[in-house]
Design a protein that fits this description.
Elements: H1 3-40, H2 56-88, H3 96-109, H4 112-119, H5 125-153, H6 164-193, H7 210-226
Helix pairs in contact: 1-2, 1-3, 1-4, 2-4, 2-5, 3-5, 4-5, 5-6, 6-7
Length: 238
C-alpha cells in the first residue's frame, strides 16, 4: 500500500469518526435540553400577601405530582442516555439506518416534557397515564431496535471486540421491552373492563407485576440458553 493510499484511508477514517462524534454531540444536546425543559415545568405558584396566593406549604404540596413526575422521568432519561453512551462507544462508522433509528429514539425522548406536563394535569385522568406510559414504552422499543441495529444488523459499523457483554445487555433489553409491553396491555385491558371511573386508576397497579414478569422471562430465557437452544449468541439470540 502506497503512502498516498494510506493517507486517503486515514483521512476517511477521521472523517467517519468526526461524523459519529457529531451524532453523539447532537444526541447529548437533545437529552440535556429535554431534562432542562422538564425542570422549567416546576414553577412555584404565587405565595405571599397577594389576594388568591397560596401559602408556601400548600404551594409545595400542589407541586408534589410535578416533582414526582420529574424525578421519574429524570431517572428514566438518565438510564437511556447512559445506554446510548455505551452503544455509541462501539461505533466506528455510520449509515442512514443508524441515523434514522437514533432520530426516532430522540423523537420519543423529546416528548417527555410534554408527557410529564400531561400526566400532572388535574383533568388528565387515565388518558394522561396511558400517554405517559406509552411514551416510555416507545422509547424503550426505539432504544432496543437501535441497539440491535448496531450489534446484529450492521456489525460493520462497530468494533468487533468486547461484544459479549453488549449482546447480553441486548437480550436483557428485549426481555424488558416484552415485559413492559405485556404490562401496558394488562393495564389497558383492565382499565377498559372497569366500568366505574373512580376505580380505573387501580389498573395501574399492574406496574407492580412488571419486575416479576421480567424475572420470570429472564429465568426462562436463561434456562433455554443453558439447554443449548437457539438463544446462544449472534443473530439467533435476537
Amino acid at each position: 500500500m502506497s503512502k498516498h493510499e494510506e493517507k486517503e484511508i486515514t483521512g476517511d477514517e477521521i472523517k467517519k469518526e468526526f461524523q459519529v462524534e457529531r451524532m453523539i454531540l447532537f444526541s447529548d444536546a437533545v437529552f440535556a435540553i429535554v431534562i432542562t425543559l422538564m425542570a422549567i415545568e416546576i414553577r412555584l405558584p404565587e405565595t405571599g400577601g397577594k389576594e388568591g396566593a397560596l401559602p408556601l406549604a400548600q404551594a409545595l404540596e400542589h407541586l408534589l405530582p410535578v416533582i414526582v413526575s420529574y424525578c421519574i422521568s429524570f431517572v428514566f432519561i438518565g438510564a437511556i442516555w447512559y445506554q446510548h453512551l455505551r452503544m455509541f462507544s462501539l461505533l466506528k462508522d455510520y449509515d442512514r439506518g443508524l441515523i434514522v433509528r437514533n432520530l426516532v429514539l430522540l423523537f420519543f425522548v423529546s416528548l417527555f416534557p410534554f408527557s410529564s406536563s400531561v400526566i400532572t394535569h388535574e383533568q388528565g385522568g387515565m388518558t394522561a397515564m396511558f400517554f405517559y406510559l406509552g411514551i416510555i414504552l416507545l422509547s424503550v422499543a426505539a432504544q432496543y431496535f437501535l441497539y440491535r441495529y448496531i450489534l446484529v444488523e450492521r456489525p460493520g459499523l462497530r468494533i468487533s471486540t468486547g461484544i459479549a457483554k453488549h449482546m447480553q445487555e441486548l437480550r436483557k433489553q428485549k426481555i424488558s421491552l416484552v415485559s413492559f409491553a405485556s404490562t401496558y396491555v394488562l393495564i389497558t385491558l383492565t382499565s377498559l373492563l372497569i366500568t366505574k371511573p373512580e376505580l380505573k386508576p387501580m389498573s395501574v397497579m399492574w406496574m407492580a407485576v412488571f419486575p416479576f414478569v421480567y424475572r420470570w422471562m429472564a429465568a426462562k430465557k436463561a434456562k433455554h440458553a443453558k439447554a443449548g437452544g437457539p438463544e446462544n449468541g449472534g443473530k439467533q439470540a435476537e
